[in-house]
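task queued by scheduler; priority normal; single chain, no ligands, no partner chains; default sampling; output format set to structure tokens
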Amino acid sequence: MQAELQHNPQSYGEYYAAVDLGSNSFHMVIVHVVNGSVQIIGKIKQKVRLAAGLDEELALDEVSMERGWQCLQVFSERLQDIPPSNIKIVATATLRLATNAHVFIKKAEEILNHKLEVISGEEEARQIYLGVAYTSANQGNSLVIDIGGASTEIVIGNDMQPIHLKSLDMGCVTFMERYFEGGNITQQNFNNAKAAAHTLITDVADAFLCFDWENCLGASGTPQAITEILVAQGISDAIRLDYLYHLEKQCIEGENIKSLSIDGLDDSRKPIFPSGLAILISLFEALHIQHMNISGGALREGLIYGMLDNIRENDRRQQTLNQAKYRYHIDGTHANNVQQVALALCHQLCAQQNICHLDTETILGAAAQLHEIGLHIEYKRHHEHGEYILSHIDLPGFTRLQRAAIRDLVAQHRLAINNATFDKYHQDYRPMLQGLLRVLRIAVVLCLRRQNKHIPEVSLACDGSNWVLSFPEGWLKAHPLINAELANECWLQHKAGCELICQ
């Protein structure tokens, strides 16, 4: 008989695992807590489609249960290395509904050697919100949506606190079985699915519409798949209703799931994509959603952070920035100086031009903090190195759109300006990002000497793309180096089609 594994708390106490037995996929995430920061060290996802095994009497068939048990055999091996107290395993909609759920659960617990909890729809929604809040650093009231295999969770929350939540019995697996029989994709099938979703959403819509929420975040599943499509097609932007209508048209043109071909859509996602899309369109229409960003977390992250009470009060974005500055040896004092100057100029810009958004200060502040991240490699092309690094590291607390904008600002913060950089963004965002780039570049020049005492108080006057930067009398003459750098910056902005005058 194999000896029981002895866990040394000093060695293993910082490892945690969360397992989510969803209606479409089973997920497991493993994290390591280091000096208060949470590092993901492993993720496993398997398409089980448990919900597809529900018959008319809501009993799970043997084939579906077997798929689930086989997946859990894989999970079980990895869980053996983690203390039981640091493991959380939950099941969601399908096992809430299944009349023979106890059969599946009994064997699942034997395989995992751990208790499995079937959580309510409301608890699922709460945990999803916490996962989103911890990883996306919500600002103000936020609407969070998660479309699962058999249920959809809708939550309004503020900061770390969910305010109002609802779980609806509609999901991409159950709707695919119900409205896209045989994998056929027609306009009528879409209309039927959207009508059914609308009926369910209408009953709860007023309770969500009464909140003045400022941003909408999608958690995993269908929003994630759509975001991947937009990125693959060169649209680095939030999800919008016009994009969703276009994707619906593309699905219908494909006629059947087997012939569905959309650039950026993963093959494993195709069987349930049309149904998830129909649900998301209905949510956008019924809740008057203008745009949706993808969150960095969902249910699994909520479970993980729920076990880490000591991290609950931390500023997730600042924690991320601090970790990046430490990892890449960024001069923190200089980064803070650039951030202060950039934000001061930004406030003047936003007061004169109606181009700013909710994300403005978040994006600019992070880009200023990280603008020298590429110096870790070398100086000459450090803006390009910075772009590469920010394209490949995770930035918990920032949405995909924010991460892309931060990366592009860092890439363009010095030398020649590439006017095509922001073409991939929606037209509503381009003026803001172009303004932030100009502000960041000016701030970098003004902080050239890397000491507070040499940073002047300046005022910015804006008339469209024509800017005038006014300095204290005699300051430019007294600082010939920075004056020369400013003159060069004026020339570079002129070449990019903008006018900057320093006086």
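post-processing summary
- The chain has three domains: 9-119, 121-302, 316-455.
- Confidence is low (pLDDT under 50) at residues 1-5.
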